[in-house]
Structure prediction request, 419 residues.
Amino acid sequence: MFKVLLLALVWASCLDPIPPETITQPGNGSVGGTVTDFCKGTAMEGVDVMAKSGGDQRLGASTGAGGAFKVADLSPGTWTISLSKTGYQTLEKSVLVQSDRHQQLKLTLTPSYKPTISAAKLDLLFVVDNSGSMEQEQKNLADAFPKFMSSLLGFKLLLDLRVGVISTDLGAGKYVDNACVTGGDGGKLLKRASSAGCPLPTADYISVKYTDGTKSESNVPGDQVVQAFSCMVKLGTDGCGFEQTLGSLSKALATGTNPGFLRQDAALAVVILTDEDDCTADNESLFDPSQQGLNDPLGPLTSFRCFEFGVTCTCSGQAECTRFTQGIRTGCKPRTGSYLFDPAKLVKELEALEALRGPGRLYLAVIGGPTSSVQVGTQGSYPTLKPSCSSTAGFAVPAVRLKYVTDALAPSSSFDDIC
Prediction:
């Protein structure tokens, strides 16, 4: 694995999750998971696991085969899970334990030494949902960036880094409203000032070079790289509510869309942040507002259209679910031959980009709604896709189409829970 990509992808683990909602029910909870070596990506045995809450401490068994651990019988509330092993930096993770619930974590330990990494170029692209529910998640992303940069600077390296930001907004075809304008942002790099006095790069992306952990050159006035990213990633929440995530990424990577950003001799890492699944349309009729009735072919104009025509599942006792089928759905996967873009096309595009750059020099990380639970309910008389995770700041629905892409690109990919 290309090591500089691993440094970029420590990003996903640096994101501070939004605390889940507190559920007050009788009974204790448990926390478990797996531990891997950050540099090698291998499972770690013999890691000591401690759970602490106030004066209460519980020593869990050391990690065993596959790096697995579990600490049981924890009272509801905030616990700190501490991992330690000789030769590695101690890791502490704050977890809100819920009554009668088990939480599964994926954690990494970083060696205490600082390995030397050879000169490298890295293009880092963030695809950020800018619809109405994403303000807190964008702020979390901005807050996490200093940790990411600190991780880079903790290693002695020569790094030529470019960072760009795009939105998920491609509009809704010819159907226009206040949020969905024709073409949206078109996959173009964005450097909007989210507040007065924002330092912005001279190009549409941040460019910075580090030598032995020291900044030597950047295109941001005053070398305010962290501040510039914080401004750029806060895209706001007035984007189109039909998030065409995969389509935006495809356009962004196409020749001519963002001149000068992508370099063929650089590794490419893409990070997608969204609380909705992909709704990239092959047929813009998907967004036709003239159909609003429950019995109309497209049904009401809500985000449920994206799920209904973009995902296929099975329901108990039925070969395939219908619009009116409530409850749990299983075996969900992208629907092909319908109104939406086939995610397999983007997989091929990304594989072609990796072939140009070399094995292991392309990585995709998605931070979205987990797909372990897919359920349909109603909101009023309209069908709705129920959240698969929630927090005090909002919720996320299962990103089935996005998860398909990360699965197809494994092991050069990851999928993390946004909640």
Summary: The two ends are 28 Å apart (CA to CA). Residues 1-25, 114-119 have pLDDT under 50 and may be disordered. The CA atoms of residues 209 and 217 lie 5 Å apart.
